[in-house]
Amino acid sequence: MSGVLVTGGTGKTGKTLVQVLRNAGVPAREASRNPTAGEPDAIRFDWSDPTTFGPALDGMDRVFLLPPVESVDPLPLVEPFLRQAQRAGVRRLVMLGSAIVLPSAPSAVELAAQVQAQPGGVVLRASGFMQNFLRPHPLAERIHRLGEIRTAAGDGKLGWVDARDIAASAAALLADLGVDARSDYLITGPHGMSYPQAAQIITARTGRQVRVERITEEEQAAAYRASGMPTEFAAALAAVERGIKEGREDQVSTAVLELTGRPPRAFAEFVSDHAYEWTQ
Questions:
Q1: Do you know which InterPro entries this protein is assigned to (predicted)?
Q2: Which of 126, 120, 109 has the alpha carbon at shortest distance from 12?
Q3: Element of type H or E holding 247
Q4: Mean pLDDT of the 177-181 span
């Protein structure tokens, strides 16, 4: 048997990726801490439990790797899995990384290098997820309850990308081992967008009035902690907004078009597709 092991298989990108692969006739195994009940090829997978690695990899020759979320130091957890994947004969390994390197998270860079050193290793460095504007993300919860975006990013722009386009890009690399691939792709939407621009688009497309409240980095970190994020991760995530404000994250690429043959979705299209989220 051969197929694709999709770690984080119930998440924003993984769930869509599993469906895209199966629609293309590619066997895909959904792996997550809480596998979907009744799912015919779902398996428990937990980064903190290495005994789950072997059964998840069994029979799979390709892997979509979603590193541990809300961790500033993922390498110690992922490194044993990479060794096991290589022993298992995995021929292509596509990791979902980030275009933004969190402050105080140097191991993320080393992790990307280790993935790229694997047979068929590819890193997709995705920009901010448009799905952050959907619940249960804290950003979306505040919009839904209060019609408000609180941000320390000012008018800085980010190349927001739809998780569906990330999944389609990953599927293009995983469905066919014959596809020639680079070891690194920057995955973004079609243009940079600031939080004030996002608020304007949501308001125009849905009729829901959304305003922007500009806050400090420290206030943002406190808000993240209040939402349940670990303290260190909350501080690192809030510090990212400083980089956005200073223009360091305003990057746009053509990788989605290159990999899938179609341009990435614009935020206005994303909002129209999910208008019910803001009008309920």
A1: Ergot_Alk_Oxidoreductase, NAD(P)-bd_dom, NAD(P)-bd_dom_sf
A2: 126
A3: none
A4: 93
Whether residue 165 contacts residue 264, with contact meaning beta carbons closer than 8 Å, is answered with yes
The enclosing H or E element of 124 equals strand 121-126
Residue type present at position 19: Q
Contact 165, 226 (CB under 8 A): no
Q: Return all residues near 177 (Cβ < 8 A) that are at least 6 apart.
A: 61, 62, 91, 92, 120
The residue assigned the tokens 């293309």 is: 24
**How far is it, in rounded angstroms, from Cα 95 to Cα 81?**
12
Rg of the chain in Å (alpha carbons): 19
Report how far apart the first and last C-alpha atoms of the chain are (Å, whole number).
Answer: 45
- pTM tops 0.85, yes or no: yes
**pLDDT over 70 (residue 38):** yes
> Which two tokens mark 115?
């993935």
Structure tokens at 240: 């990212």
- Is residue 18 exposed (0-12), middle (13-18) or buried (19+ Cβ within 10 Å)? buried
The letter for the amino acid at 242 is R
C-alpha closest to that of 126 among 259, 235, 29, 230:
259
Average pLDDT, the chain: 95
In the block, residue with structure tokens 């849905």: 206
pLDDT at 1: 64
